[in-house]
Amino acid sequence: MSKPVRLLSYNVNGIRAAMRKGLVPWLSAVEPDIVCLQEIKAMEEQIDTEALRNAGFPYQYWFPAKRKGYSGTAILSKIKPLHVEYGTGIGWMDDEGRNIRADFDGFSVMSVYVPSGTNDERLRIKFRYMDAFYDYMSDLLGRIPRLIVSGDYNICHKPIDIHDPVRLRNVSGFLPEERAWLSAFMDLGFDDTFRLFDPRPEQYTWWSYRAGARARNKGWRIDYHLATRELRPAVQRHVILRDALHSDHAPILMELDGNF
């Protein structure tokens, strides 16, 4: 029997800062097989890729934004992919390095970083991205039906996923339009794999740095492993690793049956 495939997703809020906080030895201890990173905020030549290689990740695929110190995604792997797809082919989206996909034998993994809507202009860009990404995925799923889209969606799906759903109902990240989009996106054929295992409230993946939010668990669940339903029989486990402190996000870990 093959061992499970361990898939980790982590918005590191700056890969270089996270590495200074002990990310590499932490990854060695957790032993994921595939790592999806978001908000790397660095070009490949600025990253200590050798340290990550020594930690067991010989296959590294970096997709930084053209703007330095901003956005960007990556996939690190102990398993050699059959193919890596950088971006979506939509230029203005790819300039921000928000999507990278690796195809493996029997499944594919995409690291995704949806824009935040921190002001009116960014919210407009976020909705533009959401619309374009939905159309892109609608087409892609016809060709790649066994797909996991992992990363920071910057959207809480349901009231259970945010610490104060009443007060925050008009804040970007929990707007009715954003939540409706995420529902429609999942209706393309995705499971929120965390909720296959854990129905509890107060399970969050992001906390503001302000007002001791993390210590008080005043958080938001905005990071997801969304897996197509063809993969549901293979999904064995999903946990939030909230004790990892390299970022304002917590990493999320999913395990797949190694025999699928």
Short key terms for the protein model shown above:
single chain; 260 residues; alpha+beta; Deoxyribonuclease I, Chain A; six-stranded mixed sheet; 6 helices; 23% helix; globular
Largest sheet: 6 strands, mixed
Strand content: 25-35%
CATH topology: Deoxyribonuclease I, Chain A
SSE class: alpha+beta
Low-pLDDT stretches are none
SSE pattern: EHHEHEEEHEEHEHEEEEEE
- Whole-number count of domains: 1
Query: CATH superfamily name?
Result: Endonuclease/exonuclease/phosphatase
Radius of gyration: 17 Å
CATH architecture: 4-Layer Sandwich
The quaternary state of the protein chains shown equals: single chain
Distance between the termini: 11 Å
What do the pLDDT scores average to? 97
Count of DSSP-assigned helices:
6
The CATH class, by name, is: Alpha Beta
Helix content: 10-25%
Categorize the overall geometry: globular
Per DSSP E runs of 2 or more residues, the count of β-strands stands at 14
The strand line-up of the biggest sheet is 3-4-2-1-14-13
Q: Would you write up a description of this structure?
A:
- 23% of the residues lie in helices and 27% in strands.
- By secondary structure, the protein is of the alpha+beta class.
- It has a single domain, classed as Endonuclease/exonuclease/phosphatase (Deoxyribonuclease I, Chain A), CATH 3.60.10.10.
- It has a six-stranded mixed beta sheet.
- Strand 6 (99-104) and strand 7 (107-113) form a beta hairpin.
- The longest helix is centred in the middle third of the chain and has 24 residues, at 120-143.
- The radius of gyration is 17 Å and the shape is globular.
- The mean pLDDT is 97.
